[in-house]
Each structure stands twice: as structure tokens, then as C-alpha cells.
């Protein structure tokens, strides 16, 4: 079982939001709207949107990193020209969001949102800073491990994926009900990026590699 | 080896919404309809931090993200307001329905459903008893406006789908 269940009481917000009935399994229908998805054109995404350290008066504080990888379909084929969106807290663990009340400093040089389209080989690449861990009110002394939110489209609406990428060796994994909502420990590990010296750029930024594998579409051959 | 889903969380509001995201067609587009409603939790309370995505199954020349063209787009996105409401303006789809995804804090994976603009013969609608079917039917409400509430949990829970 790859995905978490809807109801995971350790994550308190699921209790009133998880559907109580299992989803209805759809019969095969080659005409279903969900077997296609929106196409985003090259002209719709500014290449500068992939650099979260740019676009402000100065450089953001924190550890500069490169996060790159490929978007693949369930058969391991690259998914080119698909939209990847990310958002994250700053290096102090604070989001540039009005409702984030964590008393950590905002960074005037960091907003923390980026977009890009995958290239012909399904590759995406962002330059950003490593986000900080932050507290939340789910339970006493609750902290989220550092993570980057990812939104990926794929070629069919059924493949739509929103998830979170984590960093290797985070001591908070053992205490995080969102990470632990994924029942299979091996599947959890697929959300953890790999440090990669080959991606790391000397004198400039650490490199992390993380591939995204989308679910099988209903009409796709095994 | 699929990548697991995680919640969209509460703090996507400065990142995922974009200009005219809910407007699949520009204002004044001939024949445009508006789908609007509330997202409600198991206590019947509005969900003020949900993100909805609508897909009609047909692309167009308006731009799914840039909205730079004058024509139509098949894709829209709308974050709920503090009262749990959302809205989409679109050209009536050629299918009797539009596909809908809902993301929110507390949803570890999205719920997906369909907004039917008419109660027509349809394999999915036909497989449901009247009370369940009613949760997929948008209700005409004034001229060119359809009301469609998403009830995440409980009595009158929306029928959610898995492909």
C-alpha cells in the first residue's frame, strides 16, 4: 500500500475530513475526462521561477541547495513537459504565509514558491535553500521534519500528485504522524531525497536527487 | 514504486493559486457557466483551507496557467475562501460532467469526484441510489450558475471516486 489512508488519527486534522466510505472504484471508460489532463506550455512558465533564491533584492539566508530529479510514469518512462510546483518554509522554518504563526523570522529575500516544466527526459531542477523544521499544534511538542512540498501533474488527471520531499537522516521522521501515515516503511523512504555529490556544485550549493513516480493510469498496459 | 501522497498542508496559499486560476473562460464568454459551492467537513463546518482543481477533459488556447489567450481552458484551480466557498467559471463541457479534485490540510491524499451539470443517462450516475447520486448533481441556481457542495464526511457525504 503506497498511499496513506484518509483516516490517520495521529494526524488530528484527518478525523473530521477523512471520508467515511471507501471511494467508488470506476469501471473502465476510455472516454473518461480523467484519462487526460491539462497541458502547460513552455511560454506559461518563466525559467526564472525554478530559482527560489532569485527575484528578491538580496540572497536568502540558509544553506543553498539544488534539488533535481525525474518525473517518471509507473513503467519508468520519463514524463516530459509536465508542470512541477514546489513550496516550502524558509531556513528558519517559517512560511511566507499569513497564517503561519511560528515565531521564527521571515526572510525578506525568500518567498519559497517555484515552478518548472520537466525537460525531454522528464527532468526538473530547482535552486533553493534548505527549509528548516518547524513546530505545529497537532500534539504537544510536535515538529515537522524539514520538507519541500511538491505538486506534479503527469499526463492524466488520475496521476495528479501532491506530496512532500524530505531530507536524509532527519531525526524527526520517527515522531512525524504525516510521514508515518504511509503504512509501508519502504514507501516512506521513497519520499526521502538522496544527497548527491555529483549534483553538488563546488563552492556554491549542495545537491539532492529525488525522482517522482506517478501512479498507473487506468488504460495503461502493465 | 509509486511516490506516496502527502497532504497539501495549510500553507499553499502563497504558492499554488495564480491570477484568474478559477476563470477557465474570461468574463463575458458566451454561454459560460459558474459552478460554486462549499467544502464542508464531517461536522458540517466549512473548510477554509482547501484547494480545488477542475478539469473538463478538453484543452484550449487560453493557457492553463498563463490565461493569456482569449479562448477557453479546460483546467482551473480555486482555493476556498474563509467561508469554505469556491467557484469556477467555464464553458459548458462536452461531457455531462467536469472532473474535480479536492486537496486540503487533513487530506493525506486528494478526494476526487465529478460535478454533473445534468442528470443524464450515465454509467456512474446509473450505478448509484438516488441519495448518493444526488451528491454528484450540481443544482441550477439562478442564470448560468450551478451549486455543488463537497461534503467530505458523514451523512450526505459526496461520492468519491477511484480510478
From TrEMBL, chain A:
One of its GO terms (biological process) is 3,4-dihydroxybenzoate catabolic process. Residues 67-95 form the Intradiol ring-cleavage dioxygenases domain. PANTHER family: DIOXYGENASE, PUTATIVE (AFU_ORTHOLOGUE AFUA_2G02910)-RELATED, INTRADIOL RING-CLEAVAGE DIOXYGENASES DOMAIN-CONTAINING PROTEIN. SUPFAM superfamilies: Aromatic compound dioxygenase (SSF49482). This is Protocatechuate 3,4-dioxygenase, beta subunit. One of its GO terms (molecular function) is protocatechuate 3,4-dioxygenase activity. The keyword Oxidoreductase applies. Belongs to the intradiol ring-cleavage dioxygenase family. Keywords: Dioxygenase, Oxidoreductase. It comes from the Bacteria. The keyword Thylakoid does not apply.
TrEMBL record, chain B:
It comes from the Bacteria. Keywords: Dioxygenase, Oxidoreductase. One of its GO terms (molecular function) is oxidoreductase activity, acting on single donors with incorporation of molecular oxygen, incorporation of two atoms of oxygen. InterPro entries: Intradiol_dOase_core (IPR015889), Intradiol_RC_Dioxygenase (IPR050770). Transmembrane segments: none annotated. PANTHER family: DIOXYGENASE, PUTATIVE (AFU_ORTHOLOGUE AFUA_2G02910)-RELATED, PROTOCATECHUATE 3,4-DIOXYGENASE ALPHA CHAIN. This is Protocatechuate 3,4-dioxygenase, alpha subunit.
